[in-house]
Amino acid sequence: MLNAGSDRTAHRSWQPVFADDDVVIPEGRRINSGAVPLFGDMPIWDLTAMGVLPSRSASSARLRFDRMPQDWVLIAKTLAMALLNPGHRELLGAGLFSMNHAFKVGTIKEQHYEMARLARWSEKVGLTSVLSSWTADDCQSYLLEVETTRSIAARKNAQSLLRRLYTCRGILGERGLLIEVPPAGGKAGSGEILTRPIPPEVFWPLIRACWTYIDVYAPDIIRARDDIQDMIFASSQLKSDGHGKTLGRRESRLRIDRALDDWLASPSGFVPLHILTYGNARRGEVNWGRFSLLFSPFGGGKHVFEGPYGKGRRTLVEDAVRNGFPTRDGFSSVELTVVDRADGTRGPWCSGFDDLRLHRELVQLRNACYIFVSIMSMMRDSEVRGITSGAIVTHYGAPAIESRVHKHQPDGGTSRRWWVSDPVVKAIKVAEAIALDENKIFGSAMRGESTGFKPFTQIPSFVSWVNSYADDRGLQRIPVQHISPHMFRRTMSIIAANEPDGEIGLGITLKHNAVRALSNATTSGYGAVTPAWAREFDHENKNVNAGELVSYWSRNSDGQRVAFGNGEKGFVDGLNRVSATLESAGKIGDERMLRNLLRDEFASIRLGTINHCLGDPLKARCLEGQSEIVRAGGPIPSMCQPAACHNSIITVEQLSIWRGEEADLIEKLSDRKMAGVHRARLKKQLQDVRKVLGSLRT
């Protein structure tokens, strides 16, 4: 272990501006009780008194200086001290007024890791810690090393560190960098958001699986937990109360034997089996350790089936099973919800519950709640994981979640509220019901294998678990792909931004202010649609159009006239083709098939207010004389010519709009005081309207 004295001895040519007894954490930034680290402390600075994000562990707030080359220790300490104390007199005396805000622990920790990497790289290539001797080529060599061996994103951290070593050269002396590295951009030059959304083919099965867990499976899981815990508690009470202690060993043995005989003779009796393989247990074998919970007058325990008398009991049970005595997966008596399975059958969504299955299902239920709340609330990971019991409140009459925003906020974060829907409220209540810690409902769900919660491992764990049992549980398989918490927020931003007035709602939900929501590119950029989601929205629009077309198909099938205009024949022919396909398949009453056929038959149709466009580019009058690039984009609604285009159809409902427009124009033209220029414009409009109506009368 290094001490402060040896630390400074290694830097005889440069002494830091901070004293060994300078307090690292300013008093105003201490929000918790905790250590008071000093600049000279080694090997660790404990910064937990500044608060720890709900999404991080206490170790994330500790800086270790004994894991980097000794020549770099004081450089790392000085830079960390500067970020923690931007108003320190030594910084102001050196003219460092630009560092006008205190940095968060996470940023300092990232810088610390990057410093260690830079130090190890410099030793590898033969550079010293005297950074004033480094050249621009040395800096570029390190950035190239980062980009080629780590990632383009990691280059940003490396650039930030090198720029800070240059900015702080006034307090670093010869250890400061004299080369200014270009700034690292947070976005691509085009303004593109670097966070990738979850593809639609992954997103929809994921959100449906989460909701199925919350809405269908959760009641069974919670009842099974209570049932098993009650059995175990009752067993422990029997033992602690001393039942059977006054009996002789022979009498105790006889009572257990009689209880087992009664159980094996009972019409409701069964032998519990292990559901999963773990340790010495094997799936499908008798769960001897929990079997005695069901019948023993002295509580449960594997000892009932051990020893010389236990061996005989095992033989008795095995013989009974061979002779047809029923067995059951698990030992819980909870009646399970029946679901529709992939093969068309119906049955319970799982086979039963024992200790291990219960633990696994509680963990996955917790994961489902976390994923669902993160997606549907668009909260950040730290904000979701900061939710405590009782976080559901009413805000202006609507349900909301109360948590804390940490990004760009003072230490400890700022309390905020997010409006949420009823399904999110339900997910929060389920998470509360299974949480072990009321101060962290997305922590441990059950004591056992998992004692914490790490989204980067639990999200893929949920996907894998769903895919393993999808067919038997009526779930859709989720394509395996990397999914991280920040992708939830990005994906829902795309969906929300493509709803009416979604830009305003998105700005409010993401905690951007009203000005940013209406005019700044940050919100719209975060909700910018990707090609995959563009296809998804186009598919959804086609489904909506198909729903609108059902009424036209129905009236056309009854012999009614449903459209007018030059495109009438093409439209009616399409409806008749759908009818013929349904009839040949023998599925006239199948609404789902009808919608699918209408969607595919009229894939290019555009439904409008005053007319509909069949969308055939070969018939589009608006595309005549246009370039190939323009024609590739399809018909142009703003250049539509309803009276002349063979794509245009006008329905009975729209016909009344045209007649109303004709009457309105005639009324306006009756005004003899109207200026000539306005009269000429209205006459032209009336001429166009009558041209359309004239084409409809033919």
Automatic annotation (TrEMBL):
The keyword ATP-binding does not apply. One of its GO terms (biological process) is DNA integration. SUPFAM superfamilies: DNA breaking-rejoining enzymes. The keyword Metal-binding does not apply. InterPro entries: DNA_brk_join_enz (IPR011010), Integrase-like_cat_sf (IPR013762). GO terms for molecular function: DNA binding. Gene3D superfamilies: Intergrase catalytic core. Keywords: DNA recombination. Transmembrane segments: none annotated. This is Phage integrase family protein. It comes from Dietzia psychralcaliphila.
